[in-house]
Amino acid sequence: MRTRNTEKIELVKQMTMQMIVANGIENLSVNSLAKACGISVATLYIYFKDKDDLITQVAIEEGTRLSNAILKDFDPDQSFETGLWQQWQCRSHYLMANPLSLSFMERIQMSSYGGKVRSVIGDLFHSVMTRFVEGAIKRGELIPLSVEAWWSVAFAPLYSLIRFNREGRSVSMKSFVLTDEILRQTFEIVVKALKP
């Protein structure tokens, strides 16, 4: 039996993400993936049971990496404004430094794999963020909102700015680079909207 080659595994994972971003999940072919990695299809099956297992493993690993970056040093008991700003900074820094991860996870979240990823990594993330939001509401720092409304107001503006930065242009088609000043300005408006 052949031993696992970590360099090959990492190449396969990276290429899987690139091909899914470029062509969509439904168009990922094990044959074209193997060819792009310079390995045989049989080699892929040493590492993964099938295409579904490959996509699931890559998505869970990338989702875990993203969650760890977002929750790094995050204290769910800190003040609402401080905690939300920390979330904005962690998310923007990680996602701007890892644009492939952002594009890949967007595709995964909109697919049947999104539920698989959430079922594996979602509990810790959900419990930490729930504690943060509920604590802010109890302290009178945040207006009570449904999870969907809270998430839309708290994070949609951030993800729009990151997308504009990734595309290099804004909604007005002007060139765009996300600066600390724009990030902070947008954050201040979001916090104002969420405070009682």
UniProtKB/TrEMBL annotation:
InterPro entries: DNA-bd_HTH_TetR-type_CS, Homeodomain-like_sf, HTH_TetR. Residues 6-66 form the HTH tetR-type domain. The keyword Signal does not apply. This is TetR/AcrR family transcriptional regulator. Residues 29-48 bind DNA. Keywords: DNA-binding. The keyword DNA-binding applies. It comes from Chitinophaga qingshengii.
